[in-house]
Amino acid sequence: MAMRLAALPGDGIGPEVTDAALRVLTVATSRFGASVELERYPVGWEGYRVAGAPLPPETERAVGRADAVFLGAVGDPRADELPPALRPESGLLRLRKILDCYANLRPTLVLDPLVETSPLRAERIRGTDFLIVRELASGLYYGEPRGVNRDADDTEAVNTLRYRASEIRRVAHVAFEAARERDRRVVSVDKANVLEASRLWREVVADVGSAYPDIELEHMLVDRAAMELVLRPRAFDVILTENLFGDILSDEAAGVAGSIGLLPSACLGPSAALYEPVHGSAPDIAGQGIANPIAAILSVALLFHYTAGRPEIGAAIESAVHEVLSSGMRPADLARPGERASGTREITASVCEALRAS
Length: 358
Ligand code: NAD
Ligand code: IPM
Ligand code: MN
Hints:
binds nicotinamide-adenine-dinucleotide, binds 3-isopropylmalic acid, 358 residues, binds manganese (II) ion, 12 helices
Protein backbone atom coordinates (compact mmCIF):
# COMPACT_ATOMS: atom_id res chain seq x y z
CA MET A 1 0.00 0.00 0.00
CA ALA A 2 1.31 3.41 -0.96
CA MET A 3 1.72 5.92 1.85
CA ARG A 4 -0.37 9.04 1.19
CA LEU A 5 1.68 12.16 1.85
CA ALA A 6 0.22 15.66 1.82
CA ALA A 7 2.99 18.22 1.26
CA LEU A 8 2.30 21.78 2.41
CA PRO A 9 5.22 23.92 1.18
CA GLY A 10 3.90 27.19 2.68
CA ASP A 11 5.78 30.46 2.70
CA GLY A 12 9.22 32.06 2.38
CA ILE A 13 11.87 29.34 2.19
CA GLY A 14 9.14 26.73 2.84
CA PRO A 15 8.76 25.82 -0.88
CA GLU A 16 12.56 25.71 -1.36
CA VAL A 17 13.20 23.30 1.51
CA THR A 18 10.08 21.27 0.70
CA ASP A 19 11.32 20.82 -2.85
CA ALA A 20 14.65 19.58 -1.42
CA ALA A 21 12.95 17.21 1.03
CA LEU A 22 10.69 15.74 -1.67
CA ARG A 23 13.62 15.18 -4.03
CA VAL A 24 15.35 13.18 -1.33
CA LEU A 25 12.11 11.33 -0.59
CA THR A 26 11.75 10.39 -4.26
CA VAL A 27 15.31 9.08 -4.47
CA ALA A 28 14.86 7.18 -1.19
CA THR A 29 11.67 5.48 -2.35
CA SER A 30 13.19 4.32 -5.64
CA ARG A 31 16.50 3.28 -4.05
CA PHE A 32 14.88 1.25 -1.26
CA GLY A 33 11.55 0.27 -2.78
CA ALA A 34 8.84 2.18 -0.96
CA SER A 35 5.72 3.68 -2.46
CA VAL A 36 4.45 7.20 -1.71
CA GLU A 37 1.50 9.05 -3.25
CA LEU A 38 2.33 12.70 -3.04
CA GLU A 39 0.17 15.81 -3.44
CA ARG A 40 0.86 19.45 -2.65
CA TYR A 41 -1.58 21.84 -0.96
CA PRO A 42 -1.43 25.50 0.06
CA VAL A 43 -1.05 26.64 3.68
CA GLY A 44 -0.12 29.81 5.56
CA TRP A 45 0.15 33.09 3.66
CA GLU A 46 0.00 31.06 0.44
CA GLY A 47 -3.29 29.49 1.60
CA TYR A 48 -4.67 32.94 2.34
CA ARG A 49 -3.46 34.24 -1.03
CA VAL A 50 -4.95 31.48 -3.17
CA ALA A 51 -7.98 30.42 -1.12
CA GLY A 52 -8.63 33.12 1.50
CA ALA A 53 -7.64 31.04 4.55
CA PRO A 54 -4.33 29.99 6.17
CA LEU A 55 -5.65 26.41 6.25
CA PRO A 56 -7.98 26.22 3.21
CA PRO A 57 -10.80 23.61 3.31
CA GLU A 58 -9.17 21.68 0.46
CA THR A 59 -5.94 21.41 2.44
CA GLU A 60 -7.86 20.38 5.54
CA ARG A 61 -9.63 17.60 3.63
CA ALA A 62 -6.36 16.37 2.14
CA VAL A 63 -4.77 16.25 5.57
CA GLY A 64 -7.73 14.22 6.80
CA ARG A 65 -7.06 11.57 4.13
CA ALA A 66 -3.28 11.54 4.48
CA ASP A 67 -1.05 9.06 6.31
CA ALA A 68 1.52 11.80 6.86
CA VAL A 69 1.85 15.53 6.33
CA PHE A 70 5.01 17.44 5.46
CA LEU A 71 5.07 21.17 6.11
CA GLY A 72 7.81 23.52 4.87
CA ALA A 73 7.18 26.70 6.87
CA VAL A 74 4.55 29.40 7.29
CA GLY A 75 4.85 33.13 7.90
CA ASP A 76 5.05 36.27 5.81
CA PRO A 77 5.59 39.88 6.85
CA ARG A 78 2.68 40.88 4.56
CA ALA A 79 0.35 39.06 6.95
CA ASP A 80 1.25 41.30 9.90
CA GLU A 81 -1.83 43.45 9.43
CA LEU A 82 -4.29 40.55 9.11
CA PRO A 83 -6.66 39.62 11.96
CA PRO A 84 -5.27 36.75 14.11
CA ALA A 85 -7.49 34.04 12.58
CA LEU A 86 -6.19 34.75 9.08
CA ARG A 87 -2.51 34.88 9.95
CA PRO A 88 -0.30 32.09 8.56
CA GLU A 89 0.65 30.84 12.03
CA SER A 90 -3.05 30.27 12.86
CA GLY A 91 -3.20 27.82 9.97
CA LEU A 92 -0.31 25.82 11.42
CA LEU A 93 -1.81 25.83 14.92
CA ARG A 94 -5.14 24.68 13.56
CA LEU A 95 -3.45 21.95 11.55
CA ARG A 96 -1.67 20.67 14.69
CA LYS A 97 -4.96 20.79 16.60
CA ILE A 98 -6.88 18.89 13.91
CA LEU A 99 -4.22 16.20 13.85
CA ASP A 100 -3.99 16.30 17.66
CA CYS A 101 -0.26 15.73 17.21
CA TYR A 102 0.54 16.39 20.83
CA ALA A 103 4.08 15.01 20.94
CA ASN A 104 6.60 17.10 19.04
CA LEU A 105 9.96 15.33 18.83
CA ARG A 106 12.85 17.70 18.11
CA PRO A 107 16.17 15.84 18.06
CA THR A 108 19.39 17.84 18.35
CA LEU A 109 22.57 16.18 17.26
CA VAL A 110 25.94 17.87 16.97
CA LEU A 111 27.55 15.98 14.11
CA ASP A 112 31.34 15.62 14.26
CA PRO A 113 31.94 17.56 11.02
CA LEU A 114 30.03 20.51 12.49
CA VAL A 115 31.68 20.68 15.89
CA GLU A 116 33.73 23.70 14.82
CA THR A 117 30.63 25.44 13.41
CA SER A 118 28.85 25.85 16.73
CA PRO A 119 29.41 29.13 18.54
CA LEU A 120 30.27 26.99 21.59
CA ARG A 121 33.69 25.47 22.17
CA ALA A 122 34.26 22.07 20.62
CA GLU A 123 35.07 20.33 23.92
CA ARG A 124 31.71 21.44 25.31
CA ILE A 125 29.54 20.23 22.50
CA ARG A 126 31.27 17.27 20.86
CA GLY A 127 28.88 14.30 21.14
CA THR A 128 25.80 16.38 22.02
CA ASP A 129 22.74 14.27 21.30
CA PHE A 130 19.44 15.08 22.97
CA LEU A 131 15.76 14.93 22.13
CA ILE A 132 13.25 17.62 23.06
CA VAL A 133 9.75 16.21 23.54
CA ARG A 134 7.54 19.28 23.34
CA GLU A 135 3.82 19.17 24.17
CA LEU A 136 2.20 20.60 21.04
CA ALA A 137 -1.59 20.57 21.33
CA SER A 138 -2.31 22.54 24.48
CA GLY A 139 -0.91 25.12 26.92
CA LEU A 140 -0.67 28.85 26.33
CA TYR A 141 -1.05 28.48 22.55
CA TYR A 142 -4.60 27.18 22.85
CA GLY A 143 -5.91 28.16 26.31
CA GLU A 144 -9.20 30.04 26.66
CA PRO A 145 -10.05 32.76 27.44
CA ARG A 146 -7.83 34.67 25.07
CA GLY A 147 -8.19 38.00 23.34
CA VAL A 148 -7.82 41.73 23.57
CA ASN A 149 -10.19 43.96 25.56
CA ARG A 150 -10.12 47.63 24.74
CA ASP A 151 -11.99 50.32 26.60
CA ALA A 152 -11.67 54.08 26.88
CA ASP A 153 -9.11 53.95 29.74
CA ASP A 154 -6.84 51.11 28.84
CA THR A 155 -6.32 47.91 26.86
CA GLU A 156 -5.63 44.44 28.16
CA ALA A 157 -4.56 41.29 26.32
CA VAL A 158 -5.19 37.85 27.78
CA ASN A 159 -3.82 34.37 27.16
CA THR A 160 -4.45 31.38 29.35
CA LEU A 161 -1.97 28.71 30.35
CA ARG A 162 -4.10 25.64 30.93
CA TYR A 163 -3.09 21.99 31.13
CA ARG A 164 -5.17 18.94 31.94
CA ALA A 165 -3.52 16.03 33.70
CA SER A 166 -4.51 13.77 30.80
CA GLU A 167 -2.68 16.03 28.33
CA ILE A 168 0.48 15.96 30.44
CA ARG A 169 0.23 12.22 30.99
CA ARG A 170 0.09 11.26 27.32
CA VAL A 171 3.10 13.33 26.28
CA ALA A 172 5.06 12.19 29.34
CA HIS A 173 4.60 8.58 28.22
CA VAL A 174 6.07 9.48 24.82
CA ALA A 175 9.13 10.98 26.52
CA PHE A 176 9.72 7.99 28.81
CA GLU A 177 9.25 5.54 25.93
CA ALA A 178 11.71 7.56 23.84
CA ALA A 179 14.21 7.51 26.71
CA ARG A 180 14.05 3.70 26.71
CA GLU A 181 15.46 3.74 23.18
CA ARG A 182 18.18 6.20 24.20
CA ASP A 183 20.24 6.84 27.35
CA ARG A 184 17.32 6.34 29.76
CA ARG A 185 17.31 9.83 31.27
CA VAL A 186 14.48 12.37 31.24
CA VAL A 187 14.73 15.99 32.38
CA SER A 188 11.26 17.47 32.75
CA VAL A 189 11.32 21.26 32.41
CA ASP A 190 8.75 23.49 34.10
CA LYS A 191 8.29 26.65 36.16
CA ALA A 192 6.83 24.92 39.21
CA ASN A 193 8.16 27.57 41.59
CA VAL A 194 5.65 30.05 40.15
CA LEU A 195 2.97 28.46 37.96
CA GLU A 196 0.09 26.18 38.99
CA ALA A 197 0.10 24.61 35.53
CA SER A 198 3.74 23.70 36.09
CA ARG A 199 3.04 22.22 39.51
CA LEU A 200 0.46 19.95 37.95
CA TRP A 201 2.97 19.19 35.17
CA ARG A 202 5.58 18.13 37.74
CA GLU A 203 3.11 16.03 39.75
CA VAL A 204 1.83 14.15 36.69
CA VAL A 205 5.28 13.62 35.17
CA ALA A 206 6.54 12.23 38.50
CA ASP A 207 3.57 9.88 38.63
CA VAL A 208 4.08 8.67 35.05
CA GLY A 209 7.80 8.33 35.80
CA SER A 210 7.11 5.92 38.65
CA ALA A 211 5.93 3.43 36.02
CA TYR A 212 9.38 3.67 34.39
CA PRO A 213 11.78 2.68 37.21
CA ASP A 214 14.50 2.05 34.60
CA ILE A 215 14.45 5.73 33.54
CA GLU A 216 16.17 8.42 35.61
CA LEU A 217 13.89 11.45 36.04
CA GLU A 218 15.00 14.93 37.01
CA HIS A 219 12.81 18.03 37.27
CA MET A 220 14.39 21.32 36.26
CA LEU A 221 13.11 24.90 36.24
CA VAL A 222 13.02 26.38 32.76
CA ASP A 223 15.35 29.31 33.45
CA ARG A 224 18.02 26.96 34.73
CA ALA A 225 17.40 24.57 31.82
CA ALA A 226 18.03 27.42 29.37
CA MET A 227 21.41 27.98 31.03
CA GLU A 228 22.37 24.29 31.29
CA LEU A 229 21.61 23.81 27.61
CA VAL A 230 24.46 26.18 26.78
CA LEU A 231 26.82 25.20 29.60
CA ARG A 232 26.44 21.41 29.41
CA PRO A 233 24.41 20.39 26.36
CA ARG A 234 25.92 16.90 26.47
CA ALA A 235 24.36 16.27 29.88
CA PHE A 236 20.85 16.05 28.38
CA ASP A 237 19.22 12.96 26.93
CA VAL A 238 15.43 13.54 26.73
CA ILE A 239 14.00 16.96 27.61
CA LEU A 240 10.26 16.84 28.26
CA THR A 241 8.45 20.15 28.38
CA GLU A 242 5.29 22.12 27.66
CA ASN A 243 4.39 23.93 24.46
CA LEU A 244 5.88 27.40 24.93
CA PHE A 245 9.01 26.33 26.81
CA GLY A 246 9.64 23.71 24.14
CA ASP A 247 9.35 26.29 21.40
CA ILE A 248 11.93 28.53 23.04
CA LEU A 249 14.34 25.79 24.12
CA SER A 250 14.33 24.23 20.66
CA ASP A 251 15.56 27.45 19.03
CA GLU A 252 18.21 27.61 21.75
CA ALA A 253 19.14 24.02 20.86
CA ALA A 254 19.49 25.19 17.26
CA GLY A 255 21.97 27.80 18.43
CA VAL A 256 23.97 25.09 20.20
CA ALA A 257 23.97 22.93 17.07
CA GLY A 258 25.17 25.87 14.96
CA SER A 259 22.09 26.71 12.89
CA ILE A 260 18.35 26.33 12.93
CA GLY A 261 18.68 25.07 9.37
CA LEU A 262 19.75 21.72 10.84
CA LEU A 263 16.93 20.70 13.17
CA PRO A 264 14.08 18.42 12.02
CA SER A 265 10.90 17.56 13.86
CA ALA A 266 8.10 15.00 13.99
CA CYS A 267 4.71 15.77 15.53
CA LEU A 268 2.99 12.56 16.60
CA GLY A 269 -0.52 11.83 17.78
CA PRO A 270 -3.48 9.54 17.08
CA SER A 271 -3.94 10.78 13.47
CA ALA A 272 -1.49 11.38 10.64
CA ALA A 273 1.90 12.59 11.82
CA LEU A 274 3.17 16.01 10.81
CA TYR A 275 6.80 16.48 9.80
CA GLU A 276 8.25 19.97 9.76
CA PRO A 277 11.66 21.56 10.15
CA VAL A 278 12.02 23.53 13.39
CA HIS A 279 12.86 26.72 11.50
CA GLY A 280 10.41 29.23 10.06
CA SER A 281 9.90 30.87 6.68
CA ALA A 282 13.09 32.97 6.96
CA PRO A 283 11.76 35.89 4.88
CA ASP A 284 15.23 37.49 5.05
CA ILE A 285 16.72 34.82 2.75
CA ALA A 286 13.64 33.55 0.86
CA GLY A 287 13.95 33.21 -2.91
CA GLN A 288 17.75 33.36 -2.95
CA GLY A 289 18.38 29.62 -3.24
CA ILE A 290 20.59 29.62 -0.14
CA ALA A 291 18.29 28.07 2.49
CA ASN A 292 19.80 25.11 4.31
CA PRO A 293 17.65 22.10 3.32
CA ILE A 294 19.07 19.74 5.98
CA ALA A 295 16.33 20.30 8.60
CA ALA A 296 13.69 19.49 5.99
CA ILE A 297 15.60 16.48 4.65
CA LEU A 298 16.11 15.08 8.14
CA SER A 299 12.37 15.55 8.76
CA VAL A 300 11.80 13.14 5.84
CA ALA A 301 14.17 10.73 7.58
CA LEU A 302 11.92 10.96 10.67
CA LEU A 303 8.92 10.19 8.45
CA PHE A 304 10.56 6.91 7.44
CA HIS A 305 11.31 6.14 11.10
CA TYR A 306 7.87 6.91 12.52
CA THR A 307 5.15 6.75 9.85
CA ALA A 308 6.53 4.47 7.16
CA GLY A 309 7.97 1.92 9.60
CA ARG A 310 11.14 1.86 7.46
CA PRO A 311 13.87 2.97 9.89
CA GLU A 312 16.57 1.66 7.55
CA ILE A 313 15.54 4.29 4.98
CA GLY A 314 15.55 6.99 7.65
CA ALA A 315 19.02 5.90 8.73
CA ALA A 316 20.25 5.91 5.11
CA ILE A 317 19.06 9.52 4.66
CA GLU A 318 20.79 10.53 7.89
CA SER A 319 24.01 8.85 6.73
CA ALA A 320 23.79 10.60 3.35
CA VAL A 321 23.51 14.00 5.09
CA HIS A 322 26.43 13.09 7.34
CA GLU A 323 28.51 12.06 4.35
CA VAL A 324 27.86 15.33 2.52
CA LEU A 325 28.83 17.39 5.57
CA SER A 326 31.91 15.21 6.14
CA SER A 327 32.99 15.94 2.58
CA GLY A 328 33.29 19.59 3.61
CA MET A 329 30.26 20.87 1.72
CA ARG A 330 28.53 23.67 3.66
CA PRO A 331 25.26 25.56 3.19
CA ALA A 332 25.55 29.34 3.65
CA ASP A 333 24.38 29.31 7.27
CA LEU A 334 27.15 26.88 8.25
CA ALA A 335 30.02 28.18 6.10
CA ARG A 336 32.72 29.86 8.14
CA PRO A 337 34.58 32.92 6.85
CA GLY A 338 36.60 31.90 3.81
CA GLU A 339 34.68 28.66 3.27
CA ARG A 340 32.75 28.14 0.03
CA ALA A 341 28.98 28.03 0.54
CA SER A 342 26.75 25.69 -1.49
CA GLY A 343 23.17 26.54 -2.42
CA THR A 344 20.03 24.60 -1.52
CA ARG A 345 19.95 22.64 -4.78
CA GLU A 346 23.65 21.76 -4.71
CA ILE A 347 23.42 20.38 -1.17
CA THR A 348 20.24 18.48 -2.05
CA ALA A 349 21.76 16.99 -5.20
CA SER A 350 24.76 15.78 -3.17
CA VAL A 351 22.52 14.17 -0.55
CA CYS A 352 20.56 12.44 -3.34
CA GLU A 353 23.81 11.25 -4.92
CA ALA A 354 25.09 9.87 -1.60
CA LEU A 355 21.76 8.13 -1.06
CA ARG A 356 21.79 6.53 -4.52
CA ALA A 357 25.29 5.25 -3.88
CA SER A 358 24.48 3.87 -0.42
P1 NAD B 1 13.09 31.73 11.22
O1 NAD B 1 13.39 30.37 11.72
O2 NAD B 1 12.27 31.85 10.00
O3 NAD B 1 14.49 32.50 10.94
C1 NAD B 1 15.42 32.78 11.98
C2 NAD B 1 16.80 33.04 11.36
O4 NAD B 1 17.34 31.80 10.93
C3 NAD B 1 16.77 33.94 10.14
O5 NAD B 1 17.95 34.72 10.10
C4 NAD B 1 16.76 32.97 8.97
O6 NAD B 1 17.36 33.46 7.78
C5 NAD B 1 17.59 31.81 9.54
N1 NAD B 1 17.12 30.51 8.98
C6 NAD B 1 15.98 29.86 9.29
N2 NAD B 1 15.89 28.73 8.59
C7 NAD B 1 17.00 28.66 7.83
C8 NAD B 1 17.47 27.70 6.89
N3 NAD B 1 16.79 26.59 6.57
N4 NAD B 1 18.66 27.94 6.28
C9 NAD B 1 19.36 29.06 6.58
N5 NAD B 1 18.97 29.99 7.46
C10 NAD B 1 17.79 29.79 8.09
O7 NAD B 1 12.44 32.53 12.44
P2 NAD B 1 11.83 34.03 12.49
O8 NAD B 1 12.64 34.94 11.67
O9 NAD B 1 11.65 34.29 13.93
O10 NAD B 1 10.37 33.88 11.87
C11 NAD B 1 10.05 34.16 10.51
C12 NAD B 1 8.64 33.72 10.22
O11 NAD B 1 8.57 32.28 10.29
C13 NAD B 1 7.58 34.22 11.20
O12 NAD B 1 6.46 34.57 10.45
C14 NAD B 1 7.30 33.04 12.10
O13 NAD B 1 6.00 33.06 12.63
C15 NAD B 1 7.48 31.91 11.14
N6 NAD B 1 7.83 30.62 11.75
C16 NAD B 1 7.23 29.52 11.23
C17 NAD B 1 7.57 28.25 11.69
C18 NAD B 1 6.92 27.07 11.05
O14 NAD B 1 6.29 27.18 10.03
N7 NAD B 1 7.04 25.87 11.61
C19 NAD B 1 8.57 28.11 12.66
C20 NAD B 1 9.16 29.26 13.17
C21 NAD B 1 8.81 30.52 12.71
C1 IPM C 1 7.66 26.39 15.73
C2 IPM C 1 7.11 27.76 15.42
C3 IPM C 1 5.62 27.79 15.68
C4 IPM C 1 5.41 27.53 17.17
C5 IPM C 1 4.90 29.10 15.28
C6 IPM C 1 5.16 29.46 13.84
C7 IPM C 1 3.42 29.01 15.52
O1 IPM C 1 7.80 28.73 16.13
O2 IPM C 1 7.16 25.40 15.17
O3 IPM C 1 8.62 26.28 16.49
O4 IPM C 1 5.55 28.43 18.00
O5 IPM C 1 5.10 26.37 17.50
MN1 MN D 1 9.60 27.99 17.10
